[in-house]
């Protein structure tokens, strides 16, 4: 009976169709329900009657959520969209990753470089870095060695410009920590003890060249700076070595012989003279610098006969 009464209510609320037999389903597409009633898909009924008598429930009763409920449920279930959503700003504890909407922790950085000379640290933004232990000025050289460390010590750990291997400058300080002051700074200066205009080859650095003269523009140097006859522009030959023990009088790095020609014998007059070999064999090796041997003067020499001559060199 109750179901039939509801059907009558349906018919009364509909304005453009005739209610069929309640046992015969039929479409009702243009029914307008009175105030306080709802459309159930097959007719009008009160909200409580529609849920109880027709078997059609509202959204809250059926457990079916609307679009808004679905969106809220999705947001609640997702922790992240990208890796940036998971980052805690600290790279030292690893890089966090977003995996299927959930944040996963990263692997903690291992900053130990195995070097006994360094202290291992980690910066929140840049990650691992290593500094020399007991290095106050950050120049890479400690004032005191850490256990197992092998490094040159800093002689001034308050100034990074002063350290082993630094460039020495003319300032009265020891920049390179070798316990010498200004030894490699300034100009390359030379001595010229024999005042022949050519400096000694062994130059030294001097901030004011107080110990001698500056280098020549042509780069020429004296090979023995205690005899003014020994110099690069020397043209004479000498029968004896200089006091330095060498026959290199013109500083060209070799001992050049003055006479090298050979002669056939004392009875044969050569044009320019030559050395007479023992037994008059040919050819003959000229004597060494400072050695004496038989010389046959040339056709135009003042002395026409064989004479003893000492080999000269320069």
Structure description:
The chain has helices at 2-13, 47-53, 59-62, 67-77; strands spanning 37-39, 44-46, 97-99, 102-104, 118-123, 127-132, 187-190, 204-206, 213-214, 274-275, 292-296, 307-310. The chain has 314 residues and is an alpha+beta fold. Strands 8-7-9 form a three-stranded antiparallel sheet, with no helix packed on it. A three-stranded antiparallel sheet has the order 10-11-12, with no helix packed on it. A two-stranded antiparallel ribbon has the order 1-2. A hairpin with a 3-residue loop joins strand 5 (118-123) and strand 6 (127-132). It is elongated, with a radius of gyration of 56 Å.
Structural class: alpha+beta
End-to-end C-alpha gap: 149 Å
Helix-strand pattern, N to C? HEEHHHEEEEEEEEEE
Largest sheet: 3 strands, antiparallel
Query: How large a portion of the residues is in β-strands, by DSSP E?
Result: 5-15%
Portion in helices: 10-25%
Report the average pLDDT across residues. 81
- DSSP strand tally: 12
Strand line-up of the largest beta sheet: 8-7-9
List low-pLDDT spans: 1-24, 50-65
If you compute it from the alpha carbons, what radius of gyration comes out, rounded to the nearest whole angstrom? 56 Å
Instruction: Count every helix, treating DSSP H or I runs of 4 or more residues as helices.
Output: 4
Q: What overall form do the CA principal axes indicate?
A: elongated
